[in-house]
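TASK: fixed-backbone design
INPUT:
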């Protein structure tokens, strides 16, 4: 829901909002891709990933995928509709952008009218060294961003307590990747609160000031 699709005559674009990769140890982009050769041509369409730093509207090419690297199946067809086993995972290392706070990405598909190209499950991962919790803004007065970063899929429990140890709420995330949970703190009295995030043997406890 956070991506903008731009339709043009010969190319389609998925554009991300500005991302903050500064907390990420090993940021990556991945998505599922499906594309097949046309029966009448050895050419392919192409997919290009761009990035833009800041608000300059100066897009630069990060990666181009075409030819054999675009193909996800050995089947040839003129009107490709992928089966469940005709997808492949594309993983793009974003390590060169480690520490960047304002960066935007585009996935652009350039069409020669050769075949249909499918993209699904677009994810930007802020992969941490192990298990990481970030709380911001500090202090907070309305909505707290609770960012949990890790690799792969996990079950995660989020708990909040006041300084007397009274549990204010508990939320559970099942089989999920890294995420940002929005916590409304408007109804909390000003003071210090404790947030605890647990996943298996990993547990992180942090304090936050509500003003």
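OUTPUT:
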């Amino acid at each position: 829901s956070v991506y903008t699709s731009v339709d043009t005559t010969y190319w389609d674009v998925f554009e991300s909002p500005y991302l903050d990769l500064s907390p990420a140890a090993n940021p990556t982009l991945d998505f599922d891709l499906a594309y097949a050769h046309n029966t009448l041509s050895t050419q392919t369409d192409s997919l290009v990933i761009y990035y833009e730093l800041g608000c300059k509207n100066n897009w630069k090419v990060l990666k181009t995928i075409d030819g054999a690297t675009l193909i996800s199946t050995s089947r040839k067809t003129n009107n490709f509709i992928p089966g469940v086993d005709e997808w492949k995972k594309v993983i793009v290392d974003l390590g060169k952008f480690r520490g960047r706070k304002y960066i935007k990405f585009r996935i652009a598909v350039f069409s020669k009218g050769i075949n249909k190209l499918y993209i699904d499950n677009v994810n930007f991962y802020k992969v941490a060294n192990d298990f990481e919790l970030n709380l911001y803004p500090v202090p907070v007065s309305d909505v707290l961003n609770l960012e949990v970063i890790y690799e792969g899929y996990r079950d995660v429990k989020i708990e909040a307590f006041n300084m007397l140890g009274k549990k204010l709420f508990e939320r559970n995330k099942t089989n999920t990747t890294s995420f940002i949970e929005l916590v409304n703190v408007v109804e909390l009295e000003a003071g210090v609160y404790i947030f605890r995030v647990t996943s298996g043997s990993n547990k992180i406890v942090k304090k936050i000031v509500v003003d």
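COMMENT: The chain has a mean pLDDT of 87.
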